[in-house]
Every structure is written in structure tokens, then in C-alpha cells.
Amino acid sequence: MPPHTYHAPLPIVTPQTMGRIDAAAIGSGIEGYRLMLIAGSAISACVLEYYSEAVGAIVLCGPGNNGGDGYVAARYLAEAGMPVLLYSSIEPERLKGDAGRARADWSGPVYPLEELDCMPGYVVVDALFGAGLDRPIEGLIEETIAAITASALPVVAADLPSGISGRTGQVQGTALQAEHTVTFAALKPGHLLLPGAGCSGETHLVDIGIPRRVIDEHNEAMWRNDPALWGADLPVTGAAGHKYTRGHLCVFSGSFSHTGAARLAAHSALRSGAGLVTVLSPSSAVAANASHLTAVMLRKVEDQSDLDELLVDQRLGGFVLGPGFGIGEKLRQFALSIVKAGRSCVLDADGISAFSDGPEMLFALCRENPLNTVLTPHDGEFARLFPDLHADAELSKVDRARKAAERANAVILYKGADTVIAGPDGRVVINNNAPPWLATAGSGDCLAGIVGALLVQQMPPFEAAAAAAFLHGEAGKRAGEGLIADDLPDAIPPLTHYQSDNRGRG
After folding, report:
1. 390 a known binding residue?
2. Residue 9 annotated as lining a ligand binding site
3. Which residue, of 115, 259, 298, 494, is most buried by count of CB atoms within 10 Å of its CB?
4. Which residues of the sequence carry a binding annotation for AMP (predicted)?
5. Which residues contact 233 (CB under 8 A, 6 or more apart)?
6. Contact status, residue 326 vs residue 350, Cβ threshold 8 Å
């Protein structure tokens, strides 16, 4: 498959930044009402495309420009011949600016929200709050959401379902469940972070005429994970390449009864392009590992002196430590030695939990050395390593990952259905291609192996972690529903599928 030139990666911006982008676009000479007309037409087009057989549309309009989008959508739906019932959460006369103009251009009746009638066969257009809401839903709006939820009518949300914080993705007390969400100019964190991602249904990103340069000028170094971000950094094997130029990764095994995790990581690393992979096994588990390994090599590593001897060999480019290893001082000393030696290190599972009672020594070593460490915690492991960040309810998952990466001087691959990858420099990607059936025992071990393989092939740590999360999700899709972790390594797609030809880009 030939190299591919990818489209620009999709930026993600917070609602506050989106407000500044809107203002900058209007300040550059773009008419605000024109943007509203395009947004409203996109909402109406979504309704007509997916719900053409609906009896009619119930349009809910709130304060501000989100309500204005709703008025525009209502007008276009009526002009298309769809019966429309429009309900407002405020007195319509209170709408000002572009939203007031949209209200004036609507010729139909406006009913108070208190009179809402969830008539069977209708589709609901939710233009109450959008992405900017960051306070609890209560009172009449709470009752309205409950009524719509009970009615089971389909919902098309303008920008974001009402009740979801666009900044954090959290439910503000209660929220609508949309089947489709139409958002504008750029994605918001709430579209990709849970539970907001689940409430948004299918998200449609619409270009409403804001120039990309204006969005880029307000770049928050946050993107949806995509090969466009790292395709140019994927390793390429030349004609003169050999196994050592493709990197040598070592994966530590646990004891006799805990060897499977290391083998999953090792197998995944080979499938991800590493030239050589060696499982480092305690003597008690050598026989168990030897009976299962073929292309993966095996070496006995019992104690610190064995590891010190290994670290003399500069061809050993990276290590995966933690899966099935067991928590204790041995693991901590192994990890510290690897980081101090300047080798690439993926700390996963027990490799993270082992430092829960005192991570500062690890972080100090990471700060003293070039960036070469990737930590891959799930939510529980993150809480053990960064308890203060995890407990701060004001922080989004993105905020927590960013602060953790800066503190540790390591790349944080914060796992979940909404995996967040953050670097110490503030860059963040949110990965959303993982199918739900990827949540199975051993899946994370495979992910750790993919990260390690890309690191030993000289991929930068942030890009390696982002690429690994994406490849892991694609492997889950290829393996299919009902997969077990054993299926994942052989389902990892070849790196050549995602290599781009825009190398040397700025």
C-alpha cells in the first residue's frame, strides 16, 4: 500500500476557546448571522436526512446563539414542509443580536417550554444549551429532559446534547441522549470524553465558514487521534534494513503462574514491527515461557545484577515492565535502572501500581533524563499514582492527563473508551476508534507491547503512544466482536497502511 497524504488532523477546542474563535471570525469581517444560518441549515439537513418519515419536529430553543441556531433550523424545516412545534425556555423577546434576528425571521408560533407536548412520531431538535453549559441542570429544564427521555423520541442535538459539559464531557445532573449531534467548526472535548461521547450519538462536524487559519490561531494543542498526527513519524524499513535496525524490545515476564501478559505484549510488539523481542523471565517461569514462544526470544533475568548486565548492551532499545510482574521493590528498582540508563520504558499495570506509595523518585529520574518513558494507566491506576489530580472534580480527563505528564516528565496514555494521550509539552490527543469489545482481559498488555515496539523503532514517545492507541483500536475492529486478547496481536494492521508521505513537515 503506497504512502498516503493525510488531511489535517481535527483540532479539539474548549467551548471558551470556541467563543473566541467565533468572535475572531466575526471580527475579520464574516457576518455572525451568516454563520448562524449555515449552522441552522446543517441541523435541519440532519433532521431531514435521518428522520424524513417523522410526523414533525419539536424544536427546543434556549438562550443565546444555540437557541438562535434552533430558530433557523425550525424555519428551514418548515420551509421544507415538515410541521414544526417550537418551544422556548425564555421569553423570545429577550433574545438579542444574531439570535434575536433569527427569532424575528421565524414566522411561526413560539410556545413556552412549560407547555411541551412530546407527541408520538416527532423528532426533537435540542437547541437549549449546546456545549457551553458548565453548571447543573435543574428546574424546568430538568423536567423537560425527563419528559423527552420518557417519551423515547429521537433527539438531534445542536452542538452538544443539553446537560453535557463541552469542557469535561460530564453530565451536569441530567442530560439528553441524542442519536445525532451537529457541531460546528471544531470538535469539543465533550464530544469525545465519556459520558458525553455516549450521549452525543453520531457526531457530525460541519464547516460553517470559519477559516481554518482562525481555528489554528486559537490552537489548544489538542486533537482527535488520527494518522495525520503521526503517520510521518512511523518507522520505514529500507532495503538495507535488518532486524537490529528495527529495534530490540525486552518484555519482563512475571512468575510461573503469571506469564501470559508478557507473551501477549511480546507477540504484539513483533506484529508492530520490532525486529527482535525478548521475554525476560525469572528462572521459575523459564520453562512455562519456553513452551509457548517461537519467534520471541527468551532470556533469564532473576535479579538486579542480571538486568545490569543486560543494560550494557546498547542494542536493547526499550523495555516493557509491569504486565503480570507483581508489585514490589524488585519492580521499582528495575524501572529506576532502565530510566536512569536512558532506555525507552513502558510502565504498565503493576509497573504503575508499584509506585503508588511514592512516585517522586521515578518522576525525578524522568525529569533528569530525556523523554523516554510512557505510563499507561487505566483510571484506577491513575488514581494510585496521581491521587490529587484524580480527586479534583473540576479537572477533565484531558486536564488530569496534561498535569500528570508535566509532573512526571513522561507521556501519559490514560486508558479507557476515551483514551487520552498527553505529553509533558502540553500536547493532547483523544482516541475514539476503540470498539467496546476491546474491553477484555489482556487487551492492555497488547497495547503496551505496541507502544514498546514503536519506541524501539525510534518513534518519538508522544507519537508512539498516540499511534499505538489508534492501532490497538483498529486491531479490535479487525478482530471483531467477541475477541479475546489472544486474537489482537495478529489483527494489528501493518504500519505501512498509515505511513504518510508528508515527512519533514513543520
Report:
1. no
2. no
3. 259
4. 415-419, 444
5. 459, 460, 463, 464, 467
6. yes
Q: Is 68 annotated as a binding residue?
A: yes
Q: What is the domain range of residue 316? A: 245-497
The model's pLDDT over 111-159, given as tens digits with 9 standing for 90+, comes to 999 999 999 999 999 999 989 888 899 999 999 999 999 999 999 999 9
pLDDT one-digit tens code per residue, 214-229: 999 999 999 999 999 9
Q: Is there a binding annotation on residue 358?
A: no
On whether 67 is known to bind a ligand per the annotation, the reply is yes
Dihedral sign (CA 91, 92, 96, 99):
positive
444 assigned binding-site residue: yes
pLDDT in tens, 169-185: 999 999 999 999 999 99
Helix (H) or strand (E) holding 387: helix 387-391
Q: Is 476 annotated as a binding residue?
A: no
Known binder of ligand: residue 417?
Answer: yes
Contact 186, 213 (CB under 8 A): no
Within a domain: 277: yes
Q: Is 340 annotated as a binding residue?
A: no
In contact, 57 and 63? CB cutoff 8 Å: no
- The answer on whether 131 is annotated among ligand-binding residues is yes
pTM summary value: 0.94
pLDDT of res. 181: 98
CATH of the domain at 39: 3.40.50.10260
**267 has binding-site annotation:** no
Mean pLDDT on 305-323: 97
Q: Give the pLDDT mean for 322-336.
A: 97
Q: Is 501 annotated as a binding residue?
A: no
Q: Is 233 annotated as a binding residue?
A: no
Annotated binding residue at 419? yes
Ligand-binding site membership of 445 (annotated): yes
418 is in an annotated binding site: yes
Instruction: Report how many domains make up the chain.
Output: 2
